[in-house]
Amino acid sequence: MNELQDFRLDDLYEKMQLEDDEFQDWLVSLGLLNGRYPCTCGNSMKKKRRNSGQIVWECNRAYHRPTQIRRGYKDGTFFENSNISFQQVFKLSYLWAMNHSVEYAEYETQLAHRIVVSWYKKFRKICKRYFHANPIRLGGNGVIVEADETFMTRRHGGRGRPVRRRSKWLFGIVERGSGRSYYKIVRRRDSATLLSLILRHVLPNTVVHTDEWRAYRALARFPMFRHRFVNHGANFVDPQDRTLHTQTIEGKNGQWKEWVRRRHGVIDQIIPDLILEFNWRERFGRRNVVFFNFWSQVADMYPCIQ
C-alpha cells in the first residue's frame, strides 16, 4: 500500500498498461482483492474465468458433486457490484482523490455521466463511514474553537432570486491553528440545536469563540467550556483583545461555499455527503498522500484475504 504515497499520473499510466491478471494481482498485493477464498468444505477455492468472461471463485472438490460451489470474484470487496473494470474504478478514484470534477472524469475515462456520478458517490461513502467510526472532536485543553452559522440559499438552476423555502443554515466549528472543522446543515439555529452539536463535537476544557447570537448564551451553563463572544455590531475583532474573533470560521465558511460552487449543479440531497468529503479532505487530502489515505481506509473497511 505504501507505493500509493506520492502516486502521480506517470505511476497511474504505468499501472493502466498492466494486463488484467497482472492488475488484479497488484490489487491483491495492496489488500484490495482476495488472493484466496475459503470454501465451506475447508478447501481453498480457485480463481477461474468462465466462458462468459466472468471471474469467479470455484471449488471443484468431489465433496460438492453433482453441484459446484461458486462465489463472485468481487464478493465482499469494494469492487462488488461494479460493472466497469478494476482499472476504470482505479482511474476514477485517482481523479476523485485529486479533486477533479465529474465532467473532467467523464472526459478522461469516456464513461457515462451516471457511472461517474455513481462512483464519486461511492468514494464519498468511504468518507462517511470513516467519520461514523471516528466522530469529529475538536479543541481540548485551552485550544480555541470558533463556532458560527451561515445562511445557505438555493436558487432554481443556480440563478435568480433566492428561494427561502429551500433555505437552510450551515453550522460550523473550526479549530484555530489546525484549521480542522465540523459542519452540519441545520433547519434551526436555536440554542437546543447548536448546543447539542457543540457538546457532541467539542472536547472539554475548550475556549469557544462565537458572535453574540443569543443561542450561544446557554454555553455559560457548561463549566467544561470557556465561552467568549465578540459583538459584531461594534467590531469584528475585539479591540481590547485581538485574539477574540470569529474570523477563522468565517473564512472557512467562504472556503466551503466556494468548494460547493465549483461542483456545478449540486443538489440538496448530496450536500451532507459533500460536507463529510470536505472534512475528510481537510484531514487526509494532502496531494502526496490523499490517494494512499483513501485506499488504506478502503482496505480497512473491506478486509481481504491475501
From TrEMBL:
Alphabetized NCBIfam families for the sequence: transpos_IS1595
Transmembrane segments: none
PANTHER family according to UniProt: DDE_TNP_IS1595 DOMAIN-CONTAINING PROTEIN, PROTEIN CBG18017
Cited InterPro entries: IS1016-like_transposase (IPR053164), Tnp_ISXO2-like (IPR024445)
Name this protein carries in UniProt: ISXO2-like transposase domain-containing protein
Organism: Acrobeloides nanus
Domain ISXO2-like transposase as annotated: residue spans: 137-283
